[in-house]
């Protein structure tokens, strides 16, 4: 094929990436609207949210930032695939992408630790407010430090096309220089990713075992209570039967002689029945129901956070694999054809789903949030229209 200019080559690639640009635009719209809705609901409808939901609005705020920033930058990157000549802009953008995406990931680890302490160690005090704030600050600091080496790893690099005989520039991994920094960073990030996924799996496995064991105990307790109720009912029937026969006998005795003894006997038995009924009805039904509701809420929110963690793992897996392929084959993107590029770019960009999907999971699995969000949207549209 005849040589073409870099601008023409870029236009060809950008046209092939139109489906990716449309998908990224949908990501930005959904992620922004969904996370803004979560923040508004927690700001106006759920101001006094429980300890269980402390990290939800914080996670929504960072998810929104990551969605907007990463989505817009990747749209720009798709439009300037081989004409990205701004080296400083590329380095700065990659730093903030790393910083924005690391924080929600670390928050998921903090949430898993909180769920573990809540369910697996119920006798110990729950995570206090100052510890939550400290862990949040620590997550931000670690994310900042983790993103610092990215400007040394990424930059505006030459991009060759053997097919068209053109040389452009794209924002990607630097092939020359800073080899030690790139090697150390790759090892640290690889170890961190493995340790993070392992910690999440271990924590939620222990949580799952604890929840299963508690549910099993609750079932056995409920069946035991039902058995006791049936036994007490049988005993009461027996008492009633004996009262009836005694009453008959007493009536006969009354007809024969001694009416005062019969009256005293009946009064004693009536007092015994009243005491039994008072003992049965004096149990704290309200507090028991409240404990059951709290336990049910804890279990439901734990399952919800577990689903969020699963989405995180599966959404980041394709990008991690492609980063490994990039490390092994430096010319990977140069060898990808225009027909293959949209598919590979879709897999590379799918990690943004981790920052988008959480509001939909809340709406599906958190009944209280769904109700409060419905009330908020009704009020909003009534005031607007």
Essential attributes:
single chain; 385 residues; mainly alpha; two-stranded antiparallel ribbon; 2 strands; 4% strand; elongated
Task: Please characterize this protein's 3D structure.
This protein is mostly helical and 385 residues long. It is built from 14 helices and 2 strands; from the N terminus they run H-H-H-H-H-H-E-E-H-H-H-H-H-H-H-H. It has helices at 6-16, 18-45, 55-79, 87-120, 129-147, 150-153, 179-256, 259-281, 285-328, 332-335, 341-349, 353-356, 358-365, 367-384, and strands spanning 154-161, 166-173. Strands 1-2 form a two-stranded antiparallel sheet. The chain is elongated.
Strand order of the largest sheet: 1-2
Number of alpha- plus pi-helical segments: 14
- Element string (H = helix, E = strand): HHHHHHEEHHHHHHHH
* Share in β-strands: under 5%
Distance between the termini: 59 Å
The chain-level mean pLDDT equals: 80
Largest sheet, described in full?
2 strands, antiparallel
Low-confidence stretches: 247-283
Principal-axes shape call: elongated
Query: What percentage of residues falls in helices of 4 or more residues?
Result: over 70%
The total count of strands amounts to: 2
**Gyration radius from CA atoms, angstroms:** 33 Å
Structural class call reads mainly alpha
